[in-house]
Specification:
Structural class: alpha/beta
Order of helices and strands: EHEHEHEHEHEHHEH
Strand order of the largest sheet: 3-2-1-4-5-6-7
CATH class: Alpha Beta
Helix content: 40-55%
CATH topology: Rossmann fold
Mean pLDDT: 93
CATH superfamily: NAD(P)-binding Rossmann-like Domain
Number of strands: 7
CATH architecture: 3-Layer(aba) Sandwich
Oligomer: single chain
Low-confidence stretches: none
Number of helices: 8
Number of domains: 1
Amino acid sequence: MTSTPQPTALVTGAGRGLGLALARALLASGWHVVVDARRAGHLAAALPGALIVPGDVTDPAHRDALAASVNRLDLLVNNASDLGPSPLPRLADAPLVAVRRVYETNVLAPLALTQVFLPLLRAAHGTVLNVSSDAAVEAYEGWGAYGSSKAALDQLTAVLAAEEPELAVYAVDPGDMRTEMHQAAFPGEDISDRPEPETVVPALLQLIATRPPSGRVRAADLAGASA
């Protein structure tokens, strides 16, 4: 009797927030999980059993190290993101060097990782989950760099879905969360009313398990459909 191979997931930006919460849940669900983070010193204790590859997704050498860490991939989660300067500047004042960094992290790195892992994802009929934002579709003052980068990521996701119909490809808006990045977007403000990232994870696990048609989805809608 042939046993089912253990599914493998790669979650970028798993040092904190949603990436950490999702990686922990995947491990608990029996996945082999590979994670990366720029700040990874705490992850051995936070994610026992995960394969930790410290580094920055914008670094080609780091992406090569991630590629060398797996020979099977069922799920690629492009979660690593860069908000840009805090407080968030208006577009008239946005430093172009910072905007370039946002696009390198939020658009080019996910594309590069997708290109690297497409052969493995095709072989597994796998899933690509790109973490987006409502700032991709709404015009919020100060969110021009971040929001436009996530809009670009949404479009990359849509085109990838059209070009790779054997894959499940999603741009997921997780909604507001109580994270370090969200706090940086609102410096000095109390964001304790935002939900913890762990509350979003069940909707993402449902998405991964049920594989509805590829597209842009809101975690809140997934949670509502399952309620």
